[in-house]
Amino acid sequence: EKTGKVLGEFARCYKEQYGVALFNSIRYEIEGNGGPQAQLLHRKVLLEDHVIYSGNLFQYIEENKKWRNRFCMVPHNYGLVLYENKLAYEKELPPRVLVNSAGYKVLTSMDQYLELVSSSLPGVTPKSGNSPILKCPTDFPLILWHPYARHYYFCVMTGKEQEKWGAVFQDCVRHCNNGISEDSKVEAPAFTDAVRMYRQSKEQYGTWDMLCGNQTQVLSNLVMEELLPELRNAIGPRLKGKAQERQRTWIQISDAIYRMVYEQTNAQYDAMVAKCELERPQMESTIRTDMDQIITSKEHLSSKIRAFVLPKAEICVRNHVQPYISSILEALMTPTSQGFAEVREVFFKEVTDMNMNIVNEGGLEKLVEYMEKLSHLAFHPVKMQLCYEKMDQLKLEGLQQRFDVSSTSVFKQRAQIHMRQQMDDAVYTFETLLHQELGKLQGKDDLCKSIQRILERVLKKYDYDSSTVRKKFFREALLQITIPFLLKKLAPTCKGELAKFQELIFEDFASFILVENTYEEIVLQSVMKDIMQAVKEAAVQRKHNLYRDSMVMHNSDPNLHLLGEGIPIDWGEEHSGQPEAEPAADKRRRAKQVVSVIQDEEGALPYEVGAEVLMPPSSPEPEPGVPPGSPDGVAEIREVLIKESIEEPASGQAEEWLSNGTHATRESGAAEEVVVAGSAPGDVPPQGPASDGDRVRCVVPASPAPEAEVPSPPAGMACHQPSDKETCEEVAPLVACSPLQPVGTTESIEGVQTEF
């Protein structure tokens, strides 16, 4: 009932905003009003032949309250895919769990998690000394927490593993949060504006942390934001048992409700979009025919609203906004510019190291190997983490309360996405220019000089584009902070009077001109001048290496953008010296892993965790006379694990569920990856293998040790790598169950546990 009510109101907002977005899109197409042309090339064909990361970690299984060793793989679409073990992955067996991490927070301490759990169910606080809701067997937990969906609990054995997995999980969250494609010039702005208008109708202004994921996830969050407090008040007092049990039960109830809401939302949103798409041809025809009249009508409406609103808005801006713009801008500029400077530094270091290694290791053959790695640099979570973590310094203390900014996470993630895009643009421009030069080069010396010359050219282009991207980001962030504040301030005196302007709009044009949108444009204009001036002054003073708006970089590479239109470069295929083209299956099998694995072998938890934790559900209990932590007990466990890894898993495929209601499907011919070790065996310290950056890259007489490769699986065996549809979009009907029962656990007749 609540879902239907919320989506009914949202559908009205969406239909209104769809017409406005369609008109704006066609007007932009006809008039054009682009900003400065980017100097760096943008990769049009996305890289899909790589695995971000894979390795082993321990997962807590809520249904039987045990920790299990799982093989986790992160494909190019950033869905977390968990398999029973690496053998199951290599045999292309279905994964245990698929996780779309949109809306999740990555936590690295139990204290953080327990604080969030306690706040989710007010009035339920465990007594001091009582056992917590979850015990972690190591000091290095990794928890994925969501305000509505189920939580995922992992742990690793070392701090180094925790850092690397934490960076990988953060990258997954960052990517999945950015789930609404900006390529759609009508649907995306219509959707985001409709969400904003809906929330403003409920007196909710300002940024919203749960505007993350795809459209169905965002709408589910919108429903849950209203539904969950009502359910908490109705159900919370009726929960029985100890505080920890009540918290655990509430998490399961919330997750079950979230899945139900997700399923209903997905169906209703699809119907909503389909209805608008049916009307689009007629609307588009009207817009193109009457464009001039629509523009004239809108300008007339704007002039009337401006005369009424602008004097009040300017007073509000002068008294409540203008004095704080420079402070907000400075708070934004410092961490953002440091992050972009770090992107430049990481790119420079990687190319310089590659150049030095080519001098040592012998020319074109090594160039191919290094360029394949360099092409994935922007998708390397650990190396890019050096850039991303600069945004952690972003603080809007005092200003955050004044302007009703609930959290800075929206701005942090947006800046980090820009950083990754700029890094990928720089890498793609570099490899395109180098690829063009290769045919003209003679010998190793020419190659190294050419790499250095191209690097300098790309860095100049990066500096210009970086300045343009940052200035745009600062302007957008300032608007996101100040406009909701102004709208809230002006609402008592202005909003009630807007209805009288409706009569100024011709009925034929009412789908493309909205009074509410025009009013917001006037409010935006009232503050835009001050924001533009503040950013311009920062650029004139050369703060943080920003370029002035008047500085236009002449295009020194007139044919560069034509090169970007060509066929994507495959370094391995073109320059590896292979006599004939690789079969598609073999090409998929050699898909590289971006981050090298720390721990390839399946590990074991410390003895004190006990045999019970490591034994599969179907294993017999240990004998009373043998304590779990004793040598005999450990030997038994090892025998069980060896036996379990040899046995064929059950043939029946268990249906797998995401936290948002998505289920896994199988695809044939999915890609496999070859694990690339990041350092020579002799360089690995006793406490854990070295990372990518540990390999020595300098001019020395002896060449570095060759990189080891884990043998690929037998021919004809393709690893299961889920598609975007598997990890993000497909929705399955829900299994009916009581919300008070533990959600989503079954035991098949073979004794294989299935997680939903």
TrEMBL record:
Gene3D superfamilies: Pleckstrin-homology domain (PH domain)/Phosphotyrosine-binding domain (PTB). Residues 50-174 form the PH domain. Residues 662-724 are annotated as: Disordered. PROSITE patterns: PH_DOMAIN. Residues 667-680, 699-710 have a biased composition (Low complexity). InterPro entries: Niban-like (IPR026088), Niban_1/2/3_dom (IPR059060), PH-like_dom_sf (IPR011993), PH_domain (IPR001849). Belongs to the Niban family. This is NIBL1 protein. The gene is Fam129b.
